[in-house]
């Protein structure tokens, strides 16, 4: 099964996301390995992983984030969802909202997830000085999530280029966005 460029990108992002708690040196080694892999090698790797998973069930990535098995930079939460910084953001402060219960259809997203997105969007504009945000739903890894993409100068969307973020930058953003008062 040939993979599309988007699938390749998503697979690489998922693998990198699963290394977020690794030491920086190890994360860089994995990133280099992924960049050197051809499409065919990546496809073989995915097939091997799928075969291994069929023998041993593995939790989907967003379920692992919700359960705390994969560390995240959580910035907000309500009864139905958590909001965490995207580890490969489109812009500074790009946040994803993950429903606590797996949602496969957009119409099944609880209203409170959109309320959380709206509240966090205002906070991002106020604290990070974004001109506005773009709130977009996305089907990723078989689940529906919400993206809050801060816009500072030019229009952005889910197809805009992503960038690497240093752990310390994510920590700083998390600290800013979780403060109860606006920084002076």
Distance from N terminus to C terminus (CA atoms, Å) equals 54 Å
Helix content: 40-55%
Widest β-sheet, arrangement of strands: 1-2-3-5-4
Order of helices and strands: HHHHEEEHEEH
How much is the average pLDDT? 87
Tally of strands: 5
Low-confidence stretches: none
Largest beta sheet, briefly? 5 strands, antiparallel
Task: Determine the strand fraction and express it as a percent band.
Answer: 15-25%
Which structural class is indicated by helix and strand composition?
alpha+beta
Shape: globular
Rounded to the nearest angstrom, the radius of gyration is: 17 Å
| Number of helical regions | 6
Give a summary of the structure in a few sentences.
This protein is of the alpha+beta class and 184 residues long. It contains 6 helices and 5 strands.
Task: Give structural notes.
The chain contains 6 helices and 5 strands, in the order H-H-H-H-E-E-E-H-E-E-H. Strands 1-2-3-5-4 form a 5-stranded antiparallel β-sheet. The chain is globular and about 45 Å long. The protein is of the alpha+beta class and about 180 residues long.
């Amino acid at each position: 099964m040939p993979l599309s460029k988007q699938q390749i990108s998503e697979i690489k992002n998922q693998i990198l996301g699963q290394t977020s708690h690794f030491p920086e040196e190890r994360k860089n080694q994995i990133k280099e390995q992924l960049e050197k892999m051809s499409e065919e090698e990546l496809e073989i790797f995915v097939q091997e992983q799928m075969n291994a998973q069929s023998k041993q069930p593995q939790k989907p990535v967003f379920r692992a984030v919700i359960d705390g098995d994969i560390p995240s930079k959580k910035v907000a939460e309500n009864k139905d969802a958590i909001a965490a910084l995207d580890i490969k953001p489109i812009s500074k402060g790009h946040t994803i909202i993950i429903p606590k219960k797996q949602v496969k259809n957009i119409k099944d997203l609880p209203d409170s997830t959109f309320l959380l997105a709206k509240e966090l969007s205002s906070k991002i504009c106020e604290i990070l000085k974004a001109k506005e945000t773009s709130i977009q739903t996305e089907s990723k890894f078989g689940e529906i999530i919400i993206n809050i993409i801060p816009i500072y100068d030019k229009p952005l969307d889910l197809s805009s280029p992503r960038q690497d973020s240093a752990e310390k930058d994510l920590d700083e953003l998390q600290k800013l966005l979780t403060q109860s008062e606006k920084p002076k």
